[in-house]
Amino acid sequence: MQICAHTDDDLYFMTPDLLQSVRAGVPVVSVYLTTGEADGINLSFSDPARKTAEPDYPGYTAARQHGIRAAYAAMVTGSRRADWKRDTLPVRGGVTAEINTLADGQVTLIFLNLRTCVAMPDQKVLHLWAERIGELATLRPTGSPIPAKSDGRTLTRDGVIDTLVDLMQQYEPALVRVMNPDPERTSYDAKTGSISYCDNTDHTAAAFFALAALRRYERTALSRRPAVESYLGYCNKLRPDNLSAGAAAEKFHYLAVYGGEDGHECREEPGMCGDRPLGNRAYNRYYGQSTTHRWQPGTTWLQPRADGRLTAFGVLGGRPVVWTQDQPGGDAWSGPETLGQWPADDEGRCLSWLDAVRDDAGRIHVLAMRSTVGAGPETQQRDVMHLEQDARSGEFGSWANAGNPYGTAANGAAKRRGLGIPVATVTGSGHVKFALRNFGGGLSARTTTPDGWGPWEDLHGGLLEGASAVRLERGTVEIYATNKEGMLRWYQRTPGGAFERDYATLLARPAGRPTLVEQTDGRLLMFARQPGTGWTLAYRQREVGGDWDPQPCVVDSTPGFGPLAYTVLPDGDAALVQRTDDGGLRACRQPRDGSALNSEWTPLGGGPFVHAPSVAVDAAGRVVVSVLDDQARLRTLSLDAYAPFKEPEAGDWRVH
C-alpha cells in the first residue's frame, strides 16, 4: 500500500521500488489524499492560452487521475489504455471516495479528493493535521462516479486517520510506503525559529497521517504486521542522483505517460490527456533522478549469536522483531518474535531501521529510532533506542532510551525532526558508540560507559546523510559521510582518543552511504555508488591511517541501488552483496590482502525486497544472504564460503 499526497508521488518518489512490485505481480493499493488541483488550469506552462484560461478545478483533478490510471495501465499491460473498473467507496464522515481497479485487483487506486486549491491557502492538508482547521472539503472530479450531491463533503483530522485505518484493515498490506515526515531544512532563523523545508507541505502531512494511521492500526490484533518504507520528496534534489540512467529513464517514461507526453494521440477531451502542467518536464524538476529512503537502511541486521546461531533483526508493525536459526548452521528459523520489551504503546513506534553490532564480549547491541508524531510541536519526538543481550542468558531485555541531542522541550521539536539515522560501532575499549546527523548538519555522537550513556559529543562537520563507521584492528574508529563537495572523514589517532576531521580526503561524493572494509594490512577499502550510473566503485587508502587514492576502480558496471552488505569469509576475503536495477542481488568475493580487486559478480535473484540486504557466515561456514521480501518475510540464501559463488536454483531461497 502506498499512501501519497498527490497522484504522481508514487511515480516520482517510490519508483523503482513500486515498479518492481507491480512487475512481480504483487497486488498494490495506492491511496491519494488530495486532489492536487493547484490553480485548476490543465495547460502546459509554455502554452500561451494559460494566461487567459479560467480555472477548472474538477477538470484538472480528473485529468491528474486519468494520468495515473494511464501510467499504471502502461506498467501492467504495456499500454496506457486499459479497462478500469471505476466505483464509489464510502469512507468516514459521510464522504464518498472513488476507487479504481485494474486487472482483477492487481492495481487499486483510491482517491479521497481532499482539496488543495492555491486560491484557498488556509485550506491545506497540513493545517488539518496541525488542527489549525477543523475539517477539509472534498472535491468531486469531472466525470467521477461520485454522486454530485457528495461534492464538498468534509473530512476531519480523525476522519482521515480512521479512513486510512479502515483501508489497512481491509487490505492488510504487508508493506506500507509513505512519504517523508521529517524533510530537511533549507533555511533556519535562530532568532525567530522560522524554518523553511525542501518539501511540499502536502507530502509532509500525508506522511504524518499515514504514520498516525499505522499507529492505530498496529494496536489491533493483526494477522499481518506490515513493514514500512519512507521516501524523500523534493529533498532528493539536494543529493547526488542515485539512480542509473536506465532506471531514471524508466521512471520518467511513466511520468511522461502520466503527463500525457508519451507520444500518444489524445482521443479524449484535451483536459483528459493527463497532467499537462507536468507534461514532459518531470526531468527538469531535479527530484526524480533519485529514489531515497528517509530512514536509510542498514546492512548489519544479520548477526551471529555467541551460541553460533544467526539472528536477523527487523521492524514489523512498528515494533522490533527477530528471527533466529533453530540450530547453529541449520536451515530452519523461528520468528518473527518480539525483540525485547519496547516501551509502552503510547510512547511511540519504532521506525523501519535497525543497526546491530557485536561488542568484544560477543554480545549483540541493537539501535533503533523511536518516533511520536502529533499535531503540536511538543508531540514531535525522535529518540535513539538501545537494546543489549544479557551477558549470561543471551536474551534481550528492555529497550533503553539513549535520547537525542535536543532533549524533549517543545522548542527542540524541529531540531529533533532533523536528525539522521544513527550508525553504530564499538570503540577500542569495547563500548558502543553511535553517531548521527544533527539539525546543524554535523555529527552528534554518544558512547556507553559503565554507568550508562556518556554525554553527547558534537563532532562538528557539515554533511547531508550517509554516515558509515568502522573500528579498525588497532582499536581506533573512523567515520565517513557525504557533504556537498565530497567525503568527510572523522578519525582517531589512538584508541579512545578525540576525533579529528579531515576535509581533504579528495574522495568524490557518492550516491548514498559507502561500505568500509579493512584490509589485512590495516588500510581501508571503500565501496560506493557512482552518481548517475549506479556502478560500484572502490577506493583504497594509500597507507594505514593516511591519504586515499582518489582514482577509483570500477568493480561492477551493472547498475545498482542502495548500500552494499559485506562479511569477512573464513579465508580472509570479503563477500559483498548488492542490489541491482532489476530488484535482485549480486554477490562477489573481494580480496583483503591489497591485491587487485575482483569484477566478477554472481546474480542471486531474491527480489523484490525492501530495505537492504545483510550477509553473515554461519556456524556451518556458509555465507547466508538475507533480505526482507515485499511480503515482510525473512528470506535466506546459503552459499558455499569456500568455492566460487553460484547462481541459485529453484528452491535455494528459503522463506521463513
Note down, in words, how this protein is organized.
The protein is an alpha+beta fold and 656 residues long. Among the domains are: 284 residues, Rossmann fold (3-Layer(aba) Sandwich), CATH 3.40.50; 148 residues, Glycosyl hydrolase domain, family 43 (Tachylectin-2, Chain A, 5 Propeller). The chain contains eight helices and 40 strands. The strands form eleven sheets. It has a five-stranded mixed beta sheet. Strands 20, 21, 22, 23 and 24 form a five-stranded antiparallel beta sheet that branches. A four-stranded antiparallel beta sheet has the order 12-13-14-15, with no helix packed on it. α5 crosses α6. The protein is globular. It starts with a strand and ends with a strand.
Using the coordinates shown, work out and report the CATH topology of one domain. Rossmann fold
The pLDDT mean sits at: 94
Query: In order across it, which strands form the biggest sheet?
Result: 1-2-5-4-3
CATH architecture of one domain: 3-Layer(aba) Sandwich
The helix-and-strand class reads alpha+beta
Would you report the number of β strands? Answer: 40
Percentage of residues in helical conformation: 10-25%
Strand content: 25-35%
CATH class of one domain: Alpha Beta
Main sheet specs: 5 strands, mixed
Short description:
By secondary structure, the chain is α+β, with helices and mostly antiparallel strands.
Keywords:
alpha+beta; 5-stranded mixed beta sheet; 8 helices; 5-stranded antiparallel beta sheet; globular; 656 residues; Rossmann fold; 33% strand; Tachylectin-2, Chain A
